[in-house]
Design a protein that fits this description.
By secondary structure, the chain is α/β, with parallel strands linked by helices. It is built from eight helices and five strands, in the order βαβαααβαβααβα. The protein has a single domain, classed as Rossmann fold (3-Layer(aba) Sandwich), CATH 3.40.50.300. Helix 3 packs across helix 4 and helix 4 packs parallel to helix 5.
């Protein structure tokens, strides 16, 4: 596979806009769009929240890892679930086929976007609040990111433009 038409993988917290930005970016980059949360729900025939409610957050993370390891696409924009970064093997698999872009959104913005944590299917421990989860995952997002886009004050289209510019500068588009 050549570098120029590799996948573009979006990572970030729930509420960061991975799915929305992913759809716009896919149109601009002339690629298909894959939402791994949708792949999980389709394979399991239930919502992410139902998995968390019935089997726990660890089960969702395990299912997510299995789904991510099974992703075999080329020339796509892939929006991952927020907890994808807990699996090194899944992240290495995704990175081997593309460029990982971290959508860095600050905690207050994320909290304003997510109105009810109990319905989002977020894979977190019961003792964690959203701020704890943010701090824990931020380190992992930075670890796996090839490109980091700080979302503050930007529209979705501006975020996509920055991603496209970064990819062009690196010869990946």
């Amino acid at each position: 596979m050549t570098v120029k038409r590799a996948n573009i993988i979006l990572i970030g917290m729930p509420g960061a806009g991975k799915s929305t930005v992913g759809i716009i970016l896919a149109k601009q980059a002339l690629r298909d769009f894959v939402d791994t949360d949708v792949l999980i729900q389709s394979s399991q025939k239930r919502t992410l929240q139902d998995i968390v409610d019935t089997e726990g957050y660890a089960a969702l993370r395990k299912i997510e890892e299995e789904v991510l390891l099974g992703v075999s696409v080329r020339e796509c924009v892939i929006a991952t679930g927020g907890s994808a970064v807990y699996s090194d093997s899944a992240m290495q698999h995704l990175k081997s086929g593309g460029t990982v872009v971290f959508l860095d959104v600050d905690l207050p913005t994320l909290e304003s976007r997510i109105h009810d944590l109990r319905t989002r299917g977020i894979a977190k421990r019961a003792d964690q609040d959203f701020a704890d989860l943010f701090r824990e995952r931020f380190i992992l997002y930075r670890r796996y990111a090839d490109i980091t886009i700080t979302y503050a004050g930007l529209t979705q289209e501006e975020v996509c433009a920055r991603i496209m510019d970064e990819l062009r500068e690196r010869g990946k588009l």
